[in-house]
Write a structure and sequence with these properties.
alpha+beta; ten-stranded antiparallel sheet; two-stranded antiparallel sheet; 7 helices
Length: about 300
């Protein structure tokens, strides 16, 4: 007898660590600083959304094996912030009948949703969660912070990046990969021991792919106004010819994929394509929705009213 029943894999409850309290950009502290977060009406400095991706990796490797790091895609909308000390559990539906796209989500210990996502194995990912969300976006109104930005705008230059084990990742990410591995919720020998890795080299964890992609984002030169405080609202990490390796040189190309707004934020979606150092073979793609909090920009309401007059 067979059953047409959706089964779910889940991981243990974990307490993710806050590692961005000292983050700086635009000459000021970020939303991950408790004082700044409280000033903007949040409980405390939240843990960065991609941190939760590590809790999915053991579940997705259980389903798809090492290929998850070669051709996997996690496409996530962050629903509620998590502060240090709170517990989080990850869930994925198991695929049926050769499915390569499944639903994934994370919850706090009390059931509060943290994120919703799709996880898929390429090359055919189907429609990801964020592709569906972008398709429903409506044109924004008279923007203030992003008024000089346009869909299709390219980054000012191609960017050369790498992530060495003990490399400090800068003001945006004030820690190294080694320090992250000391705090990561789900560690693996694949992240630090080349001899243990199926590829013969240490690989970059899924949650650190966004760090690699954002490490040099100032070089893109996108004309956003500030100072203002932003946060990650949506994030998709898609591996095409992975994995990404520790200590390897990569080339980044950026493009503005969408511009939108909500009641509290103006936002722009950036597609960052990660190529090998020659720029000929694409390894991965990161889609990030930068949501900038309107009331963190000085005189926002007055400026907006003047544009709409």
């Amino acid at each position: 007898m067979t059953f047409d029943t959706s089964l779910t894999l889940s991981g243990p409850l974990r307490k993710p660590r806050q590692m961005l309290a000292d983050q700086e950009y635009g000459g000021h502290t970020s939303i991950h600083d408790d004082e700044m977060a409280e000033k903007l009406g949040f409980q405390a400095g939240p843990i960065e959304g991609p941190t939760h991706f590590s809790q999915f990796d053991p579940l997705l490797v259980q389903i798809w094996g090492p290929e998850w790091f070669e051709r996997g895609c996690i496409s996530s909308h962050f629903k509620n912030m998590v502060v240090e000390g709170e517990e989080v559990r990850a869930f994925v539906e198991t695929p049926k009948g050769g499915e390569t796209t499944i639903r994934a989500w994370a919850e706090k210990a009390d059931g509060t949703p943290v994120l919703e996502a799709t996880a898929s194995l390429g090359p055919d990912h189907g429609e990801t969660l964020l592709e569906a969300r972008r398709a429903k976006l409506t044109p924004p109104g008279k923007l203030v912070i992003l008024e000089d930005l346009a869909v299709g705008m390219k980054g000012a230059k191609e960017e050369n990046v790498r992530m060495d084990a003990d490399q400090h990742m800068g003001a945006l990410y004030p820690f190294s990969l080694t320090q992250k591995l000391g705090a990561i919720t789900e560690n693996s020998s694949w992240y630090a021991d080349a001899s243990a890795s199926p590829w013969g080299r240490a690989i970059i964890p899924t949650e650190m792919v966004s760090v690699l992609a954002e490490y040099s984002n100032r070089e893109a030169g996108f004309p956003t106004k500030g100072p203002a405080v932003g946060l990650f609202a949506d994030l998709e990490i898609r591996m095409l010819n992975g994995p990404l390796f520790v200590g390897e040189d990569y080339l980044l190309r950026r493009e503005v994929a969408a511009i939108a707004e909500s009641k509290r934020t103006e936002s722009y979606w950036v597609r960052t394509s990660i190529f090998d150092k020659t720029g000929e073979t694409q390894i991965a793609e990161v889609m990030l929705n930068h949501a900038i909090v309107k009331n963190s920009y000085e005189n926002y309401d007055e400026l907006r009213a003047a544009r709409e007059a």
